[in-house]
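target protein:
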Amino acid sequence: MEMEPPFEDLYKALSNKRSSINYDQSLLKPKDDVIVTESVELPLIDLDRLNSGQLEYENCLNDMAEAATRWGFFQLINHGIPEDVLKRIIHEQKKLFHQPFSNKSQPNFLNLSANSYRWGNPKATSLTQFHWSEAFHMSISDISRIDQYHFSSLRKTIEEYSVKVDNLAQRISELLATKLSSIKSSYFRDNCLLPHTDSDFLTIVYQDRVGGLQLKRDNGSWVSVKPSTNVLSVNIGDLFQALSNGVYKSIEHRVIAPQKVERLSIAYFLCPSHDVIIQSCSNKPPIYKNFSFKEYTLQIQRDVDSIGDKIGLSRFLF
């Protein structure tokens, strides 16, 4: 039985719509703005430095804040998540995605919330919005719903990983917040949870050695990020950019899927409750209007429904 979703069918459907969506044949060819010109190593933050005296603590914190400002991304070592847990989460993930598509696409698969399993981009209106990927999106509350009879090792591993990565996400957020004014140290613990969404304060990603992550720099060029073993990648999300009044950057990024090699990653999204108001913590004039997380997610959904893609923070500029 086929384990992959019917990507080819969706691709053909988009191709057949070319006359009605201003399809451009050149989209299938490399352009200057999509060619990767270099491979880079992201700023590497060693969290053990936080336990090496006050001076080293301050230096580590400054390096982290500078990376969030200049790159919007950085990587972590000595992050506190054991290598064994990282290996097991990838192993369980592989077993899950190797399930037949007919199983994964069932509404009650794993006993998760509706629409937890996603593939491609059913809202895509052009080939440039096509996603050759599949994913399971689940909130922390969903983990306890996983079918324990058939997927006990998956549930146990995700539970173990989620506890550790949640503590890490809270810690990183609070450390970054200390470099900004008017944010209490308890802000993230008071307001954050993990809904299945892509717009957040920050994301922590563990990926295999295949790589594929690319970032868009200020000059419009794309750079490829070198994969590293047992390293976690952290990227600033839209909400942290708004909260910091543009100091920390939510950088456009993408993943280029290899043609003949399977790529696996697991991402943790640190998000607020829907009623939390996101507002600038800066003493300078705010760049963005105040908005609730619910308003933000609803605006994203409207944009995806109408044009097939997210617009994001620019919707909330003054």
Summary: The chain has a mean pLDDT of 86. The CA atoms of residues 19 and 126 lie 11 Å apart.
